[in-house]
Predict the 3D structure of the following.
Amino acid sequence: MRPASIPDTLRRLWAHDTFVYSLRVFIALASVMALCWWHDRMDLVIPAFLGVIACALAETDDNWRGRLLAQVVTLACFAVAAVAVKALFPHPWLFLAGMVLSTFCLTMLGAIGERYRAIGYATLILAIYTTIGVEQGRGQGGFWHEPALLMAGAAWYGLLSVMWAALFVHQPVQQRLARLYAVLGDYLVLKGSLFEPVRGIDLEARRLELAQLNGKVVAALNAAKESIFSRLGQSRPGRKTARYLRLYFIAQDVHERASSSHYPYDELADAFFHSDIMFRCQRLLGLQGQACRRLARAIRMRLPFDAGDEARQARADLDASLEHLRRQGRPEWARLLRSVNALSANLAELDRRLGSASNPDKLDEQQQDNSLLDRSPQSMGEAFDRVRLQLTPGAPVFRYAVRLTLAMAAGYGMLHLVHPQQGYWIVLTTLFVCAPSYGATRTRLVQRVLGTVLGLLVGWVLFKLFSSLLVQALFAVVAGVAFFATRSTRYMIGTAAITVLVLLCFNQIGNGYDLFVPRLVDTLIGAGIAGLAVLVVMPDWQGRRLTQVAANALAANSRYLREIMIQYETGKRDDLAYRLARRNAHNADAALSMAMSNMLAEPGHFRRDADAGLRFLTLSHTLLNYLSGLGAHRESLSDHASDAQIARMTMAVIEALDGIAAGLAGKGGLDAGAGEEGALARALEQLPEDDADDGHRLVLTQLGLMAGLLEPLRRVGGRLVRLETREVEEESADQPAPV
């Protein structure tokens, strides 16, 4: 294999968002270090570096105008925080009051949206950085010394970020679309494993894995949509933006078709065990998954995409195998063969959609509604309403804000009890470790401690090997870049890198060795406070809200089914209402999967209903698969005698889903209706289909598959409600009686 040339290697690196992000940070840190070294003012490095880091942590994807506005807001928040810290630092009680108020308010900003969450979080970080700078400066340089240096570093990175966004407008869109198609490829390959031509495989485990992977696909879809929308706004899209928009819509369609199901897999495996039809389906899905991965690489590297002929030949082989089974004329296969025929048609259309990605500019714009829903607040009033709605003890954002506020206050009190010098690392560690969920906090706690120990060891080795301050300054820049390159994916390495950066920077002014013990002790104390807070301060146990998340998933599926059936009446059109219902259903499914993942990381006492939750997740995702199968084939149906019956059966399924959702949400019982749903499933199975056309047969088949899930969903949902009620009663019984 010919080794890659240097230009090819650089091109591949340039195509990855982590490299580009790290390159911006490198330019900012290296220029600050070079300027300070040139003027022999290494005492300015620490606050300037901290300003750069805080501003980089506040960065979100946007066009240059949006990023400029965000930077103005960020710098304004930074300025207020830095000046307030400097003014209140000599007055501990006033400082504590200001920290409590600002922590709560800035955390609640996260209710508005991701941009404001990032700005609020970074502002808290900069406030603590200011305390560290003030503590190290010991009053030298006057009132404006630390705030001015922090703001200078933040402003420099902000300027660099805005310039970068103006020069490389579409690069983030390419990277997010590439990530989307890469995870879609993984989803298709995993979906193909359901067609394993082997009896007795654990389909439930594979469905569960598929539901969890679907959450990643949904997250990638949302990230790509937001990136495109930020460059689209209210204006007509340019040529490149229009091309990326079409690729996004293709990905949406591929996702719907990839997530669809037309069949009970175990019945297919039993009926066609001696045929190669299952293998043909698996192979075709695998080839289409590989095509998605090649498309991801083509988008990332800006290369032409060729879908190839291999999948086309595999599809022809599947059709030939299906025709062979039809010719055998076995009546017991009739229903299953119709499902396989629908699957074959779906895979053929999926293949065609992937092929159209080679030249998306030729897609007919008249057949596509290009509008996107802007989920960001449109006014100050709407932003305020979002925060107001979260100001309740049951809201996750409010609980996290209270928890983080009390944890920060406890850290501030602890630093005065233990040692005032270097003590603000306690508060900083608490801020970094205390996450919204128990599982994330526990993971960060372990990784933060291990990363700090690793960073101290690496720092000690660097001090011993390289006594030159210039060499140490170069390593400090490298460590800063390594922190931003790994902080999201390898948090322990990122923590080690930022620890090395701090040691090397402080050593520039002669006290690097003095930080080793305080850094370790403060990390242990701060991490311990964060771990204790997530256990005792308004803990947000996922099991306590699992029924509400499950209810949201079923309600979203019900609305999705309504929109699908409207399309069967009017004809297929990917309008905003349909796409919104589809996206909300998948978002709700991803939220349920995330809730289950978080619950499984919690202590055993709080996940006694894990088995029921996993079972419900599997059933809910299977329901979404059947809905997607119905949505993948939506076309206007010709008039038929069964139309009224289909409408009646559809409303029965919708009402059943709404009823189960209401029961899970505590607005009704889950005991009634089980018999009716069983009767509905049996009625759909027994409907005569011989005189119906393929479209009506497919609708009846999919409705029958959905109806078969209603009774299990109600039964498992009832178990979740009973378990939650029992936990609440036990908790109430543990409380002391009022005097």
